[in-house]
Design brief:
heterodimer; A: mainly beta; Porin; 8-stranded antiparallel β-barrel; elongated; B: mainly beta; SH3 type barrels; 2 domains
Chain lengths: 230, 236
């Protein structure tokens, strides 16, 4: 008896589980499958028609529309690390264009800080080589402020946009990691639908006491680079 | 002699063909409302849809002219079999009922500045599984928080819809080197929270929440940490 009641309970549980799976299959856009009645049912419901069409209905294959909203790019430029001089910077960025106006951006940058003037004049070292590594990431929101077109000669027009961008992230520098706010502006021009060229200027602002005073550090960065749309 | 395999010609990509049903369809030179209209496709003519960027579709006319059509206008077109073209461009209905959402948030976690990335999967209109990955950066310590939780949205169809959340995860604290004998520590945590979501436009919405964390430390008593954060997200 116990095993029977166990099986009964188990089957109830399986049924409930299956109905629960319906949770995962709710899609607003899911089209209901057309209900096709069987020939037998038709025969019983209505008298046979004189002309029986022999043409078989073909199922129409609907090609997918390729979406191209993600931009991946590499950028190079100069980063002016406050008190530590301007240094070359390499940046990787991924953009996702949500609407024609707004896009999200994730960025990772790397630079190596130079020496402060005190280090140069005083001849001592404030930071080790490892501590001079300046890396950052940020997550930003961009706004296509001035979309437009640029022209090269008479026959080439390229869509472009001047965008504003601001975000948050962290800078790892001088053996510390600090909350960072970034903001700036950039210019994007698209020679083709899949390629974009960017010129971008941003300020990375964070609070640090690396030079003895706890203060906001402004680190201006100018980059140029290319990105590919996917 | 070795016979080299002859490369088969790549199959021409097949594009969706749509028939213009409205009086005319305007084609812009770029994917944006301000780009000039240089071509018009008349009623009954067809276009091939080459690609989509945000809510704009690049199409090619029967004459081979390419241009960008606004999504809301292209939705008036029909497919070859007469069925209307449908595409979810993102709207209030989509805000209430969608599959995925992704966002970034800034806030404060127990006095430290917080950067959070989150991803959510909707099980129903009301119930979502949230995945949060955050980094907090403070004066005394930095660290990471990773959480998985359930969020229940009360009125998903409202422009401002409140929610409650419940979950748990893992926290790692890295004290700053200026402290004496700093040691990293990690602990499990659990949280409850309340918040609200506010639809902005298309696929974008605001999300703000207040969470109360219980950090299960090795000490005699657990630690309670408060967090608030606000950010932007999009659904798809």
């Amino acid at each position: 008896m116990e095993s029977r009641s166990g099986i009964l309970l188990l089957s109830v549980a399986v049924m409930l589980g299956c109905s629960g799976c319906a949770l995962f299959h709710r899609h607003r856009n899911t089209a209901a499958a057309p209900v096709q009645s069987s020939p037998e049912a038709d025969a019983s419901a209505a008298p046979p028609s004189v002309i029986e069409p022999t043409v078989q209905r073909r199922t129409l294959h609907v090609p997918r529309i390729r979406a191209s909203n993600v931009e991946l790019g590499a950028y190079f430029g100069e980063l002016s690390i406050q008190d530590f001089g301007a240094q070359p910077v390499k940046v990787l960025r991924a953009d996702y264009h949500v609407t024609e106006d707004f896009f999200f951006q994730a960025a990772y940058g790397y630079a190596k800080a130079g020496k402060t003037s005190a280090e140069i004049l005083g001849g001592y070292r404030l930071l080790s080589d490892a501590e001079r590594r300046f890396t950052y990431y940020n997550l930003s929101l961009g706004y296509n402020f001035l979309p437009g077109e640029v022209f090269i000669g008479r026959h080439l027009a390229m869509s472009s946009s001047l965008y504003l961008i601001a975000g948050i992230g962290a800078v790892k520098f001088a053996g510390d990691q600090n909350f960072t706010v970034n903001f700036g502006s950039g210019f994007r021009v698209l020679p083709t639908d899949w390629l974009s060229i960017h010129i971008d200027v941003q300020d990375l602002v964070f609070r640090s006491d690396v030079t003895g005073v706890n203060e906001l550090k402004n680190n201006l960065q100018a980059t140029i680079g290319a990105a590919v749309f996917f | 002699m070795l016979s080299l395999p002859v490369a088969a010609p790549a199959a021409a990509r097949e594009y969706l063909q749509l028939y213009v049903m409205q009086p005319y369809l305007e084609l812009h030179t770029g994917p944006g409302r301000g780009y000039p209209v240089t071509q018009v496709v008349g009623r009954g003519e067809s276009v091939e849809v080459l690609m989509r960027r945000t809510e704009w579709f690049k199409v090619r006319t029967e004459r081979g002219v390419e241009g960008w059509a606004r999504g809301s206008e292209l939705l008036l077109a029909q497919q070859a079999d007469g069925t209307p073209f449908s595409f979810n461009l993102g709207d209030r209905a989509g805000f209430a009922d969608h599959r995925w959402e992704t966002g970034i948030m800034a806030g404060n976690y127990a006095g430290a500045s917080m950067v959070t990335f989150y991803q959510a999967l909707s099980l129903t209109e009301h119930l979502k599984v949230d995945l949060h990955a955050g980094q907090f950066l403070g004066n005394l310590s930095n660290g990471y928080v990773f959480d998985v939780g359930l969020t229940h949205v009360f009125m998903p169809q409202w422009r401002v819809s409140p929610f409650v959340s419940l979950g748990g995860g893992y926290e790692r604290v890295e004290p700053k080197a200026t402290l004496a004998a700093p040691t990293d520590s990690s602990a499990q945590n659990g949280y409850i929270g309340i918040g609200a979501r506010c639809y902005l436009t298309r696929r974008l919405f605001l999300r703000g929440e207040y969470l109360s964390y219980e950090v299960f430390t090795n000490n005699n008593s657990n630690e309670v940490k408060k967090e608030w954060k606000v950010g932007l997200a999009f659904f798809y």
